[in-house]
């Protein structure tokens, strides 16, 4: 049987890792962050991977890690990177491997939350506001396509939001 993982999807700065850790505690499940897993397998950070291999190289690594984690028998709470939904094959893996929570946020919220960000290659640009707006516009329909639950991420404290999400997941 396909294991029932819990995936968090959504844009950079939505709080997927923070909420994911709380959810993992609530359900007493392991937690994995795909970006961290990519970095530990590569022995390098994401910026380095983008610099050396380009976005395509990073996406290939991301795809492989998602497939590996999704195939594990142990149900796990998995925080994905914001671009995971770009590839059709990733969306198919998410849809068939568990429950998917979309943590949504407005472009303005994301702009504020990523103000001091130095680690995300796609945000190291002059006009961050426009880039974020474009990313939200392109990806929001893709997040919605895979989501079993959609929650606005900025609506309450992370621990409270995780509790609400846990209730909603249990009711699915
Ligand atoms: C990306 C989001 C990042 C990371 C990489 C690319 C994206 O993850 O995977 O910088 O394309 O939106 P977070 O969403 O965890 O910041």
Please describe the biggest sheet, giving its number of strands, its sense, and whether it closes into a barrel. 5 strands, parallel
How many angstroms does the end-to-end distance come to? 18 Å
Order of strands across the biggest sheet? Answer: 2-3-1-4-5
- Taken as a percent bin, the fraction of beta residues is 5-15%
Categorize the overall geometry.
globular
Helix content: 55-70%
What does the average pLDDT come to?
94
List unreliable stretches of 5+ residues: none
How many helix segments? 7
Cα Rg: 15 Å
In this entry the ligands are: shikimate-3-phosphate
- Helix/sheet category: alpha/beta
State the total count of DSSP E strands. Answer: 5
What is the H-and-E element order? EHEHHEHEHHEH
Features:
about 170 residues, 5 strands, globular, binds shikimate-3-phosphate
């Amino acid at each position: 049987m396909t294991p029932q993982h819990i995936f968090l999807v959504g844009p950079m700065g939505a709080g997927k890792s923070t909420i994911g850790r709380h959810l993992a505690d609530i359900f007493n499940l392991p937690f994995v962050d795909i970006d961290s897993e990519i970095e530990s397998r590569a022995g390098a950070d994401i910026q380095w991977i983008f610099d050396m291999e380009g976005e395509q190289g990073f996406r290939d690594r991301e795809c492989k890690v998602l497939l590996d984690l999704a195939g594990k028998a142990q149900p796990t709470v998995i925080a994905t990177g914001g671009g995971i939904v770009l590839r059709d094959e990733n969306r198919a893996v998410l849809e068939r491997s568990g429950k998917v929570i979309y943590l949504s946020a407005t472009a303005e919220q994301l702009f504020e939350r990523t103000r001091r960000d130095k680690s995300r290659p796609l945000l190291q640009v002059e006009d961050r506001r426009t880039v974020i707006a474009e990313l939200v516009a392109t990806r929001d329909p893709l997040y919605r396509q895979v989501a079993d639950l959609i929650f606005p991420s900025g609506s309450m404290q992370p621990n409270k939001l995780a509790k609400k999400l846990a209730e909603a997941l249990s009711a699915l």
